[in-house]
Recover the amino acids of this structure.
């Protein structure tokens, strides 16, 4: 983690913000889905919302780059990615977690490298 | 970021809007006492939450805040005569007391009882801590007490409160206050020139050393009054330097002060004039004695809060005129930016801390488009304040009243600046919330 480190009032992994260098890798998104599924406090909703803010910042930067380069196929993926992150962010704000997870699961599928197997996107137990 | 819908919810405050309805459940700062100093003095034009109002202090010293327009022909009551326990409309002489009762209607026959049927909209007021407070919500929901903020509970003269106009939506100003990271940039300077009451806070070598840790761990914890957020910096020898800030519903801040410094309270709040303008109230308090005149002169030089001010009238874009304290450095003069100063003295070339803040915030547009921003981890307090307010406004729409308005004692807290071996904010607060973290004046 670089720069600021953020924590809530608890000690557990859900009580801190995971500021991955790239929050839009498949691994980062799968981990975020797990953290969303584990939310049990109002504060944890807020911390997840902040993680999605981080993810959106990255998604929008990718979108701007795709617009600059003018690659239509990449642009479509980036537009969809940014839209899914934005939607998931809003849903977390409304505490509609299962719908937010569905958006992120769609994003995982979208961002898988060509030919890669689709991972099991059910949140990990516990 | 916020969706366009949530941005509207957060920022719109007129009658019937969700946020306007929520804010109307709280006692709101409306005026500072020096604006309306003497009985039967001149009335003031103001606007609060999008409502055009007139304020006056009657013969007995009570403050009335009424709908600005006479119910007869809609003449503005600002032109009226403030005399003998009421404000008399200059147009036809109808007279209203501080409760909005029509006490005289000379344009009607003496036998007419019509005046007894007329009631001008009026809002209850209280006066404490050098501030006139107003309640603009449903009468049956009026909180019995003002929030027990320390600067309000302090004896007269131990606090100093100022008020000024900001030309943005209220949330923009409030978010600037809790934007942790900007202080190291926007407000940095090579030469310290802030007035000495604030300057003292930076004179402790141990704290100065700890502040060099540019990557503090931020911690966040909800509380009945709102939330606390703490910045923890390594201070060596298993010790940490903690700065713990309070954010209190719906828009108050308490910024940590160094123990032993003259000030024990410093903070701001943002009261919506309408969707596009805000009254900022700045409050300071000390606990050892009242402020002296030379100290107030120093504060009013505008190096920090308040900015440099002049009293005047201001025409809002829709033509309504308000009587107010206006920042001398403002959008119309580019905040008196001095590029030489920017090269040699401070980061911005703009003199005062609030002047620097307003230069940034007012240039964002009157209501910033939050769907286009890119927040990061250090923006936790901004995300938290928005989310808590939006949740509370939605809950109220669903019939759930905000509990904090009936819990004035929850506000009796103080921000904390200390060294501690505690690594977790929760542990720090468990130890200190009842000592360093509690207000002395209560």
């Amino acid at each position: 983690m670089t720069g600021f480190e953020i924590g809530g009032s608890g000690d557990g992994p859900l009580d801190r913000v995971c500021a991955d260098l790239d929050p839009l890798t498949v691994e980062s998104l799968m981990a975020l889905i797990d953290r969303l599924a584990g939310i049990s406090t109002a504060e944890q909703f807020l911390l997840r919302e902040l993680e999605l803010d981080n993810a959106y910042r990255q998604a929008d930067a990718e979108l701007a780059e795709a617009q600059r380069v003018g690659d239509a196929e990449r642009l479509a993926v980036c537009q969809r990615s940014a839209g899914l992150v934005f939607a998931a962010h809003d849903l977390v704000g409304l505490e509609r977690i299962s719908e937010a997870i569905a958006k992120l699961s769609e994003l995982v599928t979208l961002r898988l490298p060509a030919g890669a197997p689709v991972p099991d996107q059910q949140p990990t137990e516990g | 970021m916020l969706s366009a819908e949530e941005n509207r919810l957060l920022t719109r405050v007129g009658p019937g809007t969700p946020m306007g309805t929520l804010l109307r459940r709280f006692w709101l700062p409306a005026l500072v006492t020096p604006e309306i100093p003497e009985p039967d003095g001149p009335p003031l034009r103001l606007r609060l939450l999008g409502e055009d109002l007139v304020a006056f202090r009657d013969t007995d010293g009570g403050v009335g805040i009424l709908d600005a327009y006479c119910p007869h022909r809609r003449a503005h009551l600002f032109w009226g005569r403030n005399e003998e326990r009421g404000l008399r409309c200059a147009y036809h002489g109808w007279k209203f007391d501080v409760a909005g009762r029509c006490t005289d209607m000379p344009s009607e026959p003496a036998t007419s009882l019509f005046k007894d049927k007329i009631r001008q909209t009026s809002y209850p007021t209280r006066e404490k801590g050098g501030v006139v407070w107003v309640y603009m919500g449903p009468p049956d929901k009026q909180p019995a007490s003002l929030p027990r903020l320390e600067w309000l509970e302090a004896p007269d003269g131990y606090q100093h409160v100022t008020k000024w106009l900001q030309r943005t939506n209220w949330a923009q100003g409030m978010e600037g206050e809790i934007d942790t990271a900007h202080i190291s940039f926007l407000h940095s300077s090579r030469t310290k020139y802030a007035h000495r009451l604030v300057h003292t806070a930076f004179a402790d070598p141990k704290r100065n050393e700890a502040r060099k840790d540019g990557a503090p761990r931020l911690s966040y914890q909800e509380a009945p009054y709102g939330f606390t957020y703490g910045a923890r910096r390594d201070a060596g020898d298993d010790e940490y330097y903690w700065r713990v800030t309070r954010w209190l519903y719906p828009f108050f801040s308490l910024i940590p002060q160094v123990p032993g410094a003259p000030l024990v309270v410093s903070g701001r709040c943002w009261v919506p004039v309408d969707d596009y303008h805000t009254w900022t109230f700045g409050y300071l308090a000390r606990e050892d004695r009242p402020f002296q005149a030379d100290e107030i002169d120093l504060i009013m030089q505008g190096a920090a809060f308040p900015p440099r001010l002049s009293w005047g009238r201001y025409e809002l874009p829709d033509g309504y005129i308000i009587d107010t304290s206006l920042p001398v450095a403002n959008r119309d003069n580019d905040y008196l930016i001095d590029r030489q100063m920017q090269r040699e003295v401070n980061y911005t070339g703009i003199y005062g801390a609030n002047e620097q803040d307003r230069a940034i915030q007012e240039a964002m547009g009157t209501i910033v488009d939050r769907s286009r921003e890119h927040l990061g981890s250090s923006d936790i307090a901004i995300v938290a304040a928005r989310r808590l307010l939006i949740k509370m406004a939605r809950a109220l729409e669903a019939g759930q009243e905000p509990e904090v308005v009936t819990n004035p004692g929850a506000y009796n807290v103080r921000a904390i600046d200390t060294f501690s071996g505690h690594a977790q904010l929760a542990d720090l607060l468990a130890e200190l919330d009842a000592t360093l973290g509690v207000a002395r004046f209560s």
